[in-house]
Amino acid sequence: MINMTNEIFGRDADKIVRAFLDSVHLGQNKYQVGCDYVEACVILGYIVAANNPTYFVEAGCGLGILSLTLSKMGLQGEAYDIEPSLIQEGKALAATLGINLNYNLQDFNEWNSSLPSGSFMIVDKPRGGLELVVLSKAISTKCNLALVPPYNLGETSGEILATCESYMRALMSQGYHAESVALSETLPLRVVLGTTF
Ligand SMILES: C[S@@+](CC[C@H](N)C(=O)[O-])C[C@H]1O[C@@H](n2cnc3c(N)ncnc32)[C@H](O)[C@@H]1O
Which atom of ligand 1 is nearest to the CA of 65? Predict the structure, then answer.
């Protein structure tokens, strides 16, 4: 079930799943989360890495599973989250795994740095308008983009796909190549990839 997580992290894969389970409250989530969610984050890492990013920035990293995956693959980048406890837990997880990842406690709405060309901006289910902020920041910096749109409980896969398609249209109207890729067979997770090349 967690083939790619094992492939990247080896015997440390279970430490990541455990850290994830310890940090989230799964109570009322009707979707199966846990191993599958971690695996989906790692698959997203594969997809981003396949586009040979020069640098990555993950907005709303949570524990930073995706950024840890990219770091483990030898890519340079940094991870941002607004929640102090998640940044703290993420740093502890990175230390346990022996991975050197730059975590930042910051509201990404206030992020205003420039990035080298060929960078990827990644965001996993942002809330509160962050997806639009990320979209506009990626576009204004001519950055490549991997965006997992938020979904509401009970939303059908068709509705989720429709959200992805609206993001794709927004990117294509800015000259991006855009596609939507399924990240998991069991979770309604899709990523919209916007590339500028
Ligand atoms: C679905 S979680 C991402 C989980 C992450 N991909 C992982 O691997 O654990 C979305 C994250 O966005 C963060 N977030 C929400 N608004 C934010 C903002 N304005 N700036 C930075 N992070 C934000 C939340 O604290 C949360 O950790």
Answer: 8
Residues with Cβ within 8 Å of residue 47, at least 6 apart in sequence: 146, 181, 183, 191, 193
Q: Copy the structure tokens of residue 90.
A: 């993420």
Given a cut of 60, is residue 29 above it in pLDDT?
no
* CB of 30 closer than 6 angstroms to any ligand 1 atom: no
CA of 85 to the centre of ligand 1 (A): 12
Summarize the chain as % helix, strand, coil (round to 5). 45, 20, 40
Which amino acid makes up residue 16? I
**23 in ligand 1 pocket by Cβ < 6 Å?**
no
CATH number, domain with residue 119: 3.40.50.150
Q: What is the β-pairing status of strands 56-59 and 120-124?
A: parallel
The number of domains in the chain is 1
**What predicted TM-score, i.e. pTM, was given to this entire model?**
0.91
Instruction: Decide whether any atom of ligand 1 lies within 6 Å of the 80 Cβ.
Output: yes
Mean pLDDT for 192-197 is: 89
Domain that includes residue 63, residue range: 3-195
- Ligand 1 neighbour 81 (Cβ under 6 A): yes
| CA atoms of 8 and 70, how far apart (whole Å) | 10
Q: Name the β-bridge partners of 122.
A: 58, 146
